[in-house]
TrEMBL record:
GO CC field: glutamyl-tRNA(Gln) amidotransferase complex
Domain Amidase, chain residue ranges per copy: 32-456
GO biological process: translation
Keywords of the record: ATP-binding, Ligase, Nucleotide-binding, Protein biosynthesis, Transferase
Subunit architecture: Heterotrimer of A, B and C subunits.
Gene Ontology terms, MF aspect: ATP binding; glutaminyl-tRNA synthase (glutamine-hydrolyzing) activity; transferase activity
EC class name: ligase
Protein name: Glutamyl-tRNA(Gln) amidotransferase subunit A
Gene label: gatA
Function: Allows the formation of correctly charged Gln-tRNA(Gln) through the transamidation of misacylated Glu-tRNA(Gln) in organisms which lack glutaminyl-tRNA synthetase. The reaction takes place in the presence of glutamine and ATP through an activated gamma-phospho-Glu-tRNA(Gln).
Family of the protein in this entry: Belongs to the amidase family. GatA subfamily.
Any Pfam family: Amidase
Active site: K74 (charge relay system), S149 (charge relay system), S173 (acyl-ester intermediate)
InterPro entries, sorted: Amidase, Amidase_CS, Amidase_dom, AS_sf, GatA
Length: 466
């Protein structure tokens, strides 16, 4: 699909409609909402920002590409003065005191904030059912889950409620819902976009990225959000993604895929067959394709969940009702903490806090947490070796098809295993893009660190031969 941002930009400049008209139309859709994809509609903010854009256009002033473009924000980003609930009871009435860097950059570029989007609470989940705002429904088939945790963000883009949305991806939360709703979703290299103002889930793999309908739009948004930020010491310098290169044919690229992702019992036969068909198309286009050995899915999932639970238990320990959120008073301070946390976190979040504290506890941490760290180092080293052999790794996004609403919640272990193909790239801190074709839940295009441009270029080629 062509760039929606460019298209709307041209229409605004040609005065086919005003920004206020556009924003009102989207606000009406967001409010009516068939999918339960929104926690708060940012009506006043959006209309105020739209009026500024209209004033500029009517004075004949030039506007930037993102100026006047409506976008959505996963409800884990601070936007000053708005509710930032993380889809939890604890923070349901919490208002952000400041704005996240990535979001501020988009606001500075004139993009219009439309809504805080429903998601799995604190990013804990793969279906956007772990939320106190009710399950998000899939944009293509409402009997199916939206995917998660950035489910509301994916659905809003797919349903044209927003032009793009900003999700968060710790272990697949942008890529998997993008695949489930047939849009693009990029998890950038760790550190490319500042995490300042993103509620921390697992700090060592948390990333900020866009969901959009075109590759071009992913690049436009990334170029605005990327950059070093003194407020996030893990941020890195990165180069601009050049649209002319993304649009050109990738030359001299070697492609790889993990044999054991495809040759195992867990993969759905249709997803397997479709993935192999894509590999054949890549070969037919003249690219060298190598089979690679990798860690099996169980090891990836166990390593990821060991570390992610440890980090989230530690990050969420600040939420005891003292400084933020819904405090429930009880007999004494200790009971107050206990009741506040037991009543206000969801079952899934509590499972992770309990698991994480176990992983980190005295007597267990060497055997579990440090073992997880060691495995992570080995996974990172394996990626480094692979990217000496190939430039791009292709993989399915998920082993199975999109689940029905209700199926996932009843079986957390199956939910964790469904993340088998996304979590490894998170542990490696690599950039990876979901493309909405190739298999029922999409295809992942992954590169070495900082190779976003190459990934998008290769995805653009795949889109042409699909
Ligand atoms: N489904 C994974 C998890 O629950 C990934 C979530 C995410 O990326 N926030 O941990």
């Amino acid at each position: 699909m062509e760039s929606q941002i460019q298209k709307i930009h041209n229409q605004l400049v040609a005065k086919e409609f005003t920004c206020t008209e556009l924003v009102k139309e989207k606000l009406a859709l967001l409010k009516e909402n068939k999918y339960n994809s929104v926690n708060t509609v940012l009506e006043d903010l959006a209309l105020e920002a739209a009026a500024k854009v209209d004033a500029k256009i009517s004075k004949g002033e030039e506007i930037g590409l993102l100026e006047g473009i409506p976008f959505g924000i996963k409800d884990v980003y601070m936007v000053q003065g708005t509710y930032t609930s993380a889809s939890s009871d604890l923070l349901k009435k919490y208002k952000s005191a400041y704005t996240a860097t990535a979001i501020q950059k988009l606001l500075d570029a004139g993009a219009i904030p439309m809504a805080k989007e429903n998601c799995d609470s604190f990013g804990h989940g793969s279906s956007s059912e772990n939320t106190v705002f009710g399950s998000v429904k899939n944009a293509i088939d409402t009997s199916l889950v939206a995917g998660g945790s950035s489910g509301g963000s994916a659905v809003n883009v797919a349903a044209d409620y927003t032009v793009f949305s900003i999700g968060g991806d710790t272990g697949g939360s942008i890529r998997q819902p993008a695949g489930y709703n047939k849009i693009y979703g990029l998890k950038p290299t760790y550190g490319r976009v500042s995490r300042y103002g993103l509620m921390a889930y697992a700090s060592s793999t948390d990333t900020v990225g866009p969901l959009a309908k075109s590759i071009e739009d992913v690049a436009i948004v990334m170029n605005v959000m990327s950059g070093k930020d003194p407020k996030d010491q893990t941020t890195i310098l990165s180069e601009e993604i050049k649209q002319n290169i993304v649009a050109s044919k990738p030359e001299g690229i070697k492609v790889g895929y993990f044999k054991n992702f495809i040759e195992n019992d867990a993969i759905d036969p249709k997803i397997k067959a479709d993935f192999i068909a894509t590999i054949e198309k890549v070969k037919a286009a003249g690219y060298e394709v190598q089979e690679l050995d990798f860690f099996n899915a169980d090891t990836l999932v166990s390593t990821y969940y060991t570390l992610a639970m440890a980090e989230t238990a530690s990050n969420l320990s600040r939420l005891d009702g003292t400084n933020y959120g819904n405090r429930i008073e009880d007999k004494n301070l200790k009971e107050t903490y206990m009741v506040t946390r037991s009543e206000n976190f969801t079952e899934e979040t509590k499972r992770r806090i309990v698991g994480g504290n176990q992983v980190l506890s005295q007597g267990f941490s060497d055997a579990i947490y440090l073992k997880g760290q060691e495995l992570r180092n080995e996974i990172e080293a394996a990626f480094e070796a692979d990217f000496n052999k190939v430039d791009i790794i292709l993989s399915p996004v998920t082993p199975g098809p999109v689940p029905k609403i209700g199926e996932v919640l009843s079986n957390p272990h199956a939910m964790y295993l469904s993340d088998a193909y996304t979590v490894g790239f998170s542990l490696g801190q690599l950039p990876t893009l979901t493309c909405p074709f190739g298999t029922e839940t999409g295809i992942q295009v992954t590169g070495a660190k900082n190779k976003e441009q190459t990934i998008l270029q290769f995805a653009n080629f795949l889109n042409q031969v699909k």
